[in-house]
Amino acid sequence: MQYRELLDQLRTHVANLFQTHEDERFIYHNLHHTEQVVENVVRIANHYQLSDQDFFIVVAASWFHDMGYFFDCTQHESRGASLANDFLSANGVSSEVIEQVKGCIMATKMPQNPEGLLQQIVCDADLFHLGSDRFKERNRLMRKEAEAFIKYKIDKADWRIKTIALFKAHHYHTEFCQQLLNAKKAENLAELESKLIKEQNVDTTGVSKFDNSKDNESKEGKRKRTTDQSVVSKLCSGSPPLIISA
With CB atoms 3.0 to 4.6 Å apart as the test, which of 82, 130, 173, 179 could cross-link to 120 if both were Cys? Predict the structure, then answer.
């Protein structure tokens, strides 16, 4: 099997899928994001000096891992695995390799629970940005994408709370990413928590934004805030990259 040549064909195939299913609402989950995840996978895989077959498995999985968003946002991992299965089967890839590719894609479903090094590599690549300088920008784009789908602004405090919860629930699985990214991830988390504390402090009027003794919100405001929390919770449960805060 000429894995390198097949990866070139696969990359072209995925790029064509992005073009034919272009949706301006996907501000975060676009081709650029997928290319970044592939870049991360290659970096981690090279560290572990994977065999050609194993390298193909993780890179192929990274190309397909978010393709399911075009067809079913709630089950995008399984749809992405199905798309990978169709392409790889049509190109003569063995069933054993295909199952491993699909397993790596499904491992990115939150909460992540990868089995073995290959799945760990893809999971760490998908949330690589949590421990990098790219985090702020990726988080901003993810929130804008969520807002594009629900068609109104999401309360920043609610988004920040959910992002902090993601940070605390998440951990890198490979030793390489733990050593490379944990320190910066901790810095990013500390900054999120600091901003949240400032938001919850007493405002200039001396009344806390969250003072339950004051009915400062209209019924409509309360309804919208509750809806925001529900939407963000649903987005968070969908995938790492859905609260790329994923």
Answer: 173
Closest among 16, 54, 53, 47 to 34, alpha carbons compared: 16
Task: Return the residue matching tokens 């925001």.
Answer: 228
pLDDT tens for each residue of 150-187: 999 999 999 999 999 999 999 999 999 999 999 999 99
Could you give the CA distance from residue 48 to residue 55 in angstroms, rounded to a whole number?
A: 10
Question: By the 8 A CB rule, do 222 and 212 touch?
Answer: no
pLDDT in tens, 123-153: 999 999 999 999 999 999 999 999 999 999 9
Query: How many residues make up the chain in this entry?
Result: 246
- Residue 25: which of 144, 185, 190, 201 has the closest Cα? 144
User: Does the N-terminal peptide bond of residue 241 adopt cis geometry, omega within 30 degrees of 0?
Assistant: no
Quote the CA–CA distance of 212 and 210 in Å, as a whole number: 6
Beta-carbon contacts of residue 57 (< 8 Å; ≥ 6 apart): 97, 100, 101, 104, 118
